[in-house]
Amino acid sequence: MAHYDLFRVMIRYWTNFAATGDPNGSGLHECPACGPNCRRYMLLGGCHDTSDSMSYARSSR
Protein backbone atom coordinates (compact mmCIF):
# COMPACT_ATOMS: atom_id res chain seq x y z
CA MET A 1 0.00 0.00 0.00
CA ALA A 2 1.42 3.36 -0.98
CA HIS A 3 1.88 5.99 1.72
CA TYR A 4 -0.86 8.15 0.23
CA ASP A 5 -3.30 5.21 0.21
CA LEU A 6 -2.48 4.42 3.84
CA PHE A 7 -3.02 8.09 4.70
CA ARG A 8 -6.46 8.04 3.06
CA VAL A 9 -7.47 4.87 4.96
CA MET A 10 -6.35 6.37 8.28
CA ILE A 11 -8.27 9.59 7.58
CA ARG A 12 -11.42 7.55 6.87
CA TYR A 13 -11.08 5.60 10.15
CA TRP A 14 -10.52 8.80 12.16
CA THR A 15 -13.32 10.70 10.40
CA ASN A 16 -15.79 7.88 10.99
CA PHE A 17 -14.74 7.65 14.64
CA ALA A 18 -15.04 11.41 15.20
CA ALA A 19 -18.47 11.58 13.54
CA THR A 20 -20.08 8.43 14.96
CA GLY A 21 -17.86 6.94 17.70
CA ASP A 22 -17.30 3.94 15.41
CA PRO A 23 -14.26 3.89 13.07
CA ASN A 24 -15.77 1.27 10.75
CA GLY A 25 -17.31 2.16 7.43
CA SER A 26 -18.04 0.97 3.93
CA GLY A 27 -14.99 -0.46 2.20
CA LEU A 28 -12.85 -0.56 5.37
CA HIS A 29 -11.66 -3.67 7.17
CA GLU A 30 -13.52 -4.21 10.44
CA CYS A 31 -11.88 -2.53 13.41
CA PRO A 32 -13.02 -4.56 16.47
CA ALA A 33 -14.42 -2.80 19.54
CA CYS A 34 -12.07 -2.45 22.51
CA GLY A 35 -12.44 -1.51 26.15
CA PRO A 36 -10.00 -0.02 28.67
CA ASN A 37 -8.10 -3.31 29.13
CA CYS A 38 -7.98 -4.20 25.44
CA ARG A 39 -4.52 -5.07 24.14
CA ARG A 40 -5.50 -5.53 20.50
CA TYR A 41 -4.24 -3.44 17.59
CA MET A 42 -4.70 -3.24 13.84
CA LEU A 43 -1.89 -3.45 11.33
CA LEU A 44 -2.49 -1.33 8.25
CA GLY A 45 -0.32 -1.35 5.18
CA GLY A 46 0.50 -4.25 2.87
CA CYS A 47 -1.96 -6.42 4.75
CA HIS A 48 -4.74 -5.66 7.20
CA ASP A 49 -4.65 -7.68 10.38
CA THR A 50 -6.01 -7.50 13.88
CA SER A 51 -3.77 -9.01 16.52
CA ASP A 52 -2.99 -8.77 20.20
CA SER A 53 0.22 -7.51 21.75
CA MET A 54 1.29 -10.97 22.92
CA SER A 55 1.18 -12.47 19.43
CA TYR A 56 3.22 -9.50 18.16
CA ALA A 57 5.81 -10.05 20.90
CA ARG A 58 6.03 -13.75 20.02
CA SER A 59 6.39 -13.10 16.29
CA SER A 60 9.09 -10.44 16.64
CA ARG A 61 11.60 -12.62 18.46
UniProtKB/TrEMBL annotation:
InterPro entries: AB_hydrolase_fold. It comes from the Bacteria. Gene3D superfamilies: alpha/beta hydrolase (3.40.50.1820). This is Uncharacterized protein.
